[in-house]
Amino acid sequence: MKVRSTLAVLWLLASACATSSSSLSSSSLSSSSRPPSAEDARFTALLEEDWERNLREYPTMATYVGDLRYNDRLTDESFEAIARRKQELQALSGRLKTVDRSRLSAAHQLNYDLFLRNVASGLEGQRFPEEYLPISQLGGVHDQMAELAQIAPKRTVKDIQDFVKRLRAVPLMVDQSIALMRKGLEAGVTPPRVTLRDVAGLIRNQIVESPEQSPVYRALFEGFPPSLKEEEPRLRAEVATALREAVVPSYRKLLAFFEADYYPRARESIAMSALPDGAAWYAYRVKEMTTTDLSPEAIHQLGQAEVKRILTEMEKVKEEAGFKGSVQQFAQFLLKEPRFAFRSREELLMTYRDLTKRLDPALPKLFRTLPRLTYGVLPVPAYSEKTVPAGYYMPGSLEAGRAGYFFVNTYDLPSRSKWMVDALVLHETVPGHHFQVSLAQEQGEVPSFRRHGFYGAFVEGWGLYAESLGYELGVYQDPYAKFGRLASEMLRAIRLVVDTGLHSQGWTREQALAFFRENSGEPEHDIVVEVDRYIVNPGQALCYKVGELKIQELRAWAARELGPRFDVRTFHDVVLRSGALPLPVLERHVKAWGAQAQTAP
């Protein structure tokens, strides 16, 4: 999943995932014949009221989840609006305490516990000024409109005119972002300067001489519906005028501020612990991202152990391939071997698209329930391809009539190899992110905040677990594909070591790069992108391995406890059909199912 920019709204709003897991009762995970109560209705009304408020407050989030009522607005990021939202969260916490949990049905007790956890986490996070960081090399104010243009509806004249209103609001959005960045400079809260070196170029990618050259314009009119053919010239003119008069001048203003004031004064340090209250901020993010109480030191040691284990597995695959030399030499051989090279960007795209379609008919072997929403594969937009990873997933929406999309990076073609394809497709599409996110959205019996929730350790942990299913799906056909799968897993193990090393153990950027080079076969460009990603988005990289290990542990437990009664398709249903969950809640959920399955006829 894309981990920064507009999608972060869903992450931070819908599922701030911290606070003690002990507050979640196992009784709320079991079935109950108790009929809905008056307290259920009161609590449901509170949930619906809060969801509606969030859609109004965060109109870009509303667009992503498929609610089109606020498509003519952008989020108000003024100091006044930010302060008001913090006060409203305090008030919501007070109202939530008036709900009598003991009078709720079992299903609503789980909803209550998760909602309470999210609210408590949001309150805890208010001490940390995340709003001072609206821009980074991974995304932000400079590319938000181009990203929105990719997913904005384009079926009616009103759809386009709504987007024009958003374009007209860009000057205010930029001014508010600059004000937040100035406040961040005063407080000493900025991204590390080393990670900002390419951001001026990213802003320039949005500053065009002709509106028709804008990434916004191209995305908005790509695949324009024939039904609007008569209106198309007028709508194109309106978009072009808004870009020329409002958007491009605002980005020029942003670029001038960034180059003259922001970049020169950005902090030299790289660790989050170097920020004001930074050690507590990092501890909060670790707890939020992993949904556990694991300390940074414990995660660091876990990562070291996983790196050693995966290296042993890589040695076996290297021997299977008949290669004489070290694992690192084998990785370099694979990167340089012509038979694994793509001859063009088009061949790369077609290779990824072919595998996604070959995967679809194999899924029923492992899953009883399949999502209805379709997905496609697109290249990472040129305006951001230099600074983002090898691929990411953008969720779709049945409500909005929008498919999910896997964006694959075609930049620096020599660094992309065919043996990397299988694991990345499994992670980002099916049975990975597209499968899990779409299935969660389609659980109509659970509240909206859960259908669109994003607990990082669950979502990214599932994506990494999905890569391991490639063996059962018949994807990894030779030792090179198997090595690609292990290289992908190694990347996630290295993240545990490097992220905690950088932000809690005093590692330098050079140490992080050196550890990466020593233990992975990643291309140099990808290593630099990865390390700078961990520097600028602390804690997020911990989600993958922590979550995957828990899911693997629960599957092994269920298979051991149930013996011949174990059915992997049912296990996957149990894991996925409740939507994303914090890991302690997932564990109780699976074990409650296991206990019932042991005694069932």
TrEMBL record:
<dbReference type="Pfam" id="PF05960">
    <property type="entry name" value="DUF885"/>
</dbReference>
<feature type="signal peptide">
    <location>
        <begin position="1"/>
        <end position="20"/>
    </location>
</feature>
<keyword id="KW-0732">Signal</keyword>
<dbReference type="InterPro" id="IPR010281">
    <property type="entry name" value="DUF885"/>
</dbReference>
<protein>
    <submittedName>
        <fullName>DUF885 domain-containing protein</fullName>
    </submittedName>
</protein>
